[in-house]
UniProtKB/TrEMBL annotation:
Its EC number is 3.4.21.89. Belongs to the peptidase S26 family. GO terms for molecular function: signal peptidase activity. InterPro entries: LexA/Signal_pep-like_sf (IPR036286), Pept_S26A_signal_pept_1 (IPR000223), Pept_S26A_signal_pept_1_Lys-AS (IPR019757), Peptidase_S26 (IPR019533). PANTHER family: CHLOROPLAST PROCESSING PEPTIDASE, SIGNAL PEPTIDASE I. It catalyses: Cleavage of hydrophobic, N-terminal signal or leader sequences from secreted and periplasmic proteins. The keyword Membrane applies. This is Signal peptidase I. It comes from Breznakia pachnodae. It is a single-pass type II membrane protein.
């Protein structure tokens, strides 16, 4: 009888030990998953909520998507890329399009973009929307601006919806270190 009682105690102790080890294993899995998730969110991709119409019609108010964080560090930032920057005045992230690159001289004259004196077509702009906003071209979509010479680490950023966008025309050029991510993949409208 004593052997049966000891056997019961040993089995009970083993079950308790297994339960503790399984609990610790589960906690370890949850912690590792959280660390991987946080690394992914901060280093690879970033969820983004579009707040406002400054990038309309390309991005719309209320859309939710993800952006590429690592692309800013391992790839080049090119003209017309859509990027996210931090606005220190309003303390929020802004989605804007790269218009001017480091070292360039940029000017808008009569609604036309000039980079280093050359006309650059803004083919990403929605022609129907631009015509609607400009009374069929009688009023420039982008008001005159510049010329401005960008520094060796400065980018000129504009929203696609020029009439309502707070961008480099008001805030000045942004340094590369202020660019948080690039590219957008909308996952929810």
């Amino acid at each position: 009888m004593n052997d049966t009682n000891n056997s019961h105690k040993i089995k009970k102790k083993l079950r308790k030990t297994n339960f503790i080890f399984e609990g610790l294993s589960l906690i370890r899995i949850v912690l590792i998953s959280m660390i991987v998730f946080l690394i992914a969110i901060n280093c690879l991709i970033r969820p983004t909520y579009i707040n406002g119409n400054s990038m309309y019609p390309f991005l719309e108010d209320g859309q939710i998507g993800i952006t590429n964080v690592i692309g800013v560090y391992v790839g080049e930032i090119e003209r017309f890329d859509v990027v996210t920057v931090y606005d220190h005045v309003e303390e929020k992230n802004l989605a804007k399009r790269v218009i001017g690159l480091p070292g360039e001289t940029l000017e808008y004259r009569n609604g036309t973009l000039y980079i280093n004196g050359e006309v650059i077509e803004e083919t990403f702009l929605d022609d129907d929307y631009v015509n609607e906003q400009t009374n069929n071209g009688s009023i420039p979509f982008t008001s005159n601006y510049g010329p401005i010479e960008l520094g060796e680490d400065e980018y000129f950023l504009c929203g696609d919806n020029r009439r309502v966008s707070r961008d480099s025309r008001e805030l000045g050029p942004f340094e590369k270190s202020e660019i948080i991510s690039k590219d957008f993949l909308i996952v929810f409208n």
